[in-house]
């Protein structure tokens, strides 16, 4: 039996122009819109997803850390961090959340990162004994100064971090041109969903009761996906839009529950097995 559980690790706030970019704006224009925007969206959850599978426990993304509240943790020279607000209490980090569920983080055999942005890697410290998998293409743009400019904090990653970097080297899966199986039965598989970030991937979980699409930040909400509205962060709006259309085509081919990392309605859809189309 395969089970998927949503785990909230604090809250994030962003500008309205970040959640939904204007269709007529390119990459640079969208960034300017975020800085000019005076409106903030409601606090959004920072979600991780635990997959319990016959081959072990798999965690998709690790959320963020309470250390965001410590002066100097976020690089002050990058003005983007003033356009978002992360609030995580110590007990809201993924490690304490798992312990409250009766699961030692050391019992999580594999951590899968959809991408390396700080609100997806902030909980890595809790998994020194786990296999860490991430997309090679995204890792390549997440290190050094370039990574720090793009919303990553490589200088805050654990010193022991040596992720297993994977390629999308498997066969096509529906509308996705390639894939990468995680489990031997092929019921947990990565597919490329670039747009929010270069090399971003999503995780498809084919359970007995439904297919679950753990979308990371491929979209911030199901509503935006259905409306084919891309975010303000993307440096490639056309690719981001193509990804949304691919996800919709996939969901039209089999009953699929969409689970982005910041959709407040996601956990309820998961509990009710509410499919996308």
Walk me through what this model shows.
- With 277 residues, the chain is α/β, with parallel strands linked by helices.
- Helices cover 23% and strands 24% of the residues.
- It contains 9 helices and 12 strands.
- The protein has a 7-stranded mixed β-sheet with strand order 4-1-2-3-5-6-7. The chain has a 5-stranded mixed β-sheet with strand order 8-9-10-11-12.
- Helix 4 links the parallel strand 5 and strand 6.
- The model has no long low-confidence stretch (mean pLDDT 97).
Radius of gyration: 17 Å
Class from helix and strand fractions: alpha/beta
- Secondary-structure element string: EHHEEEHEHEHHEEEEEHHEH
Number of domains: 1
Q: What is the approximate shape?
A: globular
* Number of helical regions: 9
CATH architecture: 4-Layer Sandwich
Spatially, the strands of the biggest sheet line up as 4-1-2-3-5-6-7
Mean pLDDT: 97
Low-confidence stretches: none
Give the structure's gist in a few sentences:
The chain is α/β, with parallel strands linked by helices.
Features:
about 280 residues, alpha/beta, Metallo-beta-lactamase, Chain A, seven-stranded mixed sheet, five-stranded mixed sheet, globular
Topology:
Layout: E1 3-14, H1 16-19, H2 27-36, E2 44-53, E3 56-60, E4 84-87, H3 94-100, E5 110-112, H4 118-121, E6 131-135, H5 136-139, H6 144-149, E7 164-166, E8 180-181, E9 188-192, E10 201-206, E11 211-216, H7 222-226, H8 237-253, E12 256-260, H9 266-272
Parallel strand pairs: 3-5, 5-6, 6-7, 11-12
Antiparallel strand pairs: 1-2, 1-4, 2-3, 8-9, 9-10, 10-11
């Amino acid at each position: 039996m395969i089970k998927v559980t949503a785990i909230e690790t604090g809250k994030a706030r962003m500008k309205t122009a970040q959640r939904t970019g204007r269709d007529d704006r390119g990459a640079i224009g969208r960034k300017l819109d975020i800085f000019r925007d005076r409106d903030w969206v409601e606090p959004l959850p920072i979600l991780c997803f635990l997959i319990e599978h016959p081959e072990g426990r798999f965690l998709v993304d690790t959320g963020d850390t309470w250390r965001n509240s410590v002066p100097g943790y976020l690089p002050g020279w990058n003005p983007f961090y003033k356009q978002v607000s992360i609030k995580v209490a110590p007990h809201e980090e993924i490690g304490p959340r798992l312990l409250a569920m009766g699961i030692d983080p050391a019992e999580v055999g594999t951590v899968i990162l959809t991408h390396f942005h700080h609100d997806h890697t902030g909980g890595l410290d809790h998994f020194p004994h786990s296999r860490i998998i991430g997309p090679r293409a995204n890792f390549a743009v997440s290190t050094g100064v370039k990574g720090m400019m793009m919303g990553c904090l490589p200088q805050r990653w654990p010193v022991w971090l040596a992720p297993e970097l994977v390629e999308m080297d498997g066969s096509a899966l529906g509308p996705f041109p390639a894939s990468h199986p995680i489990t031997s039965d092929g019921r947990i598989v990565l597919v490329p969903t670039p747009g929010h970030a270069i090399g971003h991937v999503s995780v498809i979980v084919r359970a007995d009761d439904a297919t679950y699409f753990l979308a990371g930040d491929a979209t911030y909400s199901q509503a935006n996906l259905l409306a084919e509205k891309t975010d303000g962060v993307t440096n490639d709006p056309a690719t981001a839009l193509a990804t949304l259309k691919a996800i919709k085509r996939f969901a039209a081919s089999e009953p699929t529950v969409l689970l982005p990392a910041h959709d407040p309605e996601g956990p309820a859809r998961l509990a009710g097995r509410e499919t996308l189309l």
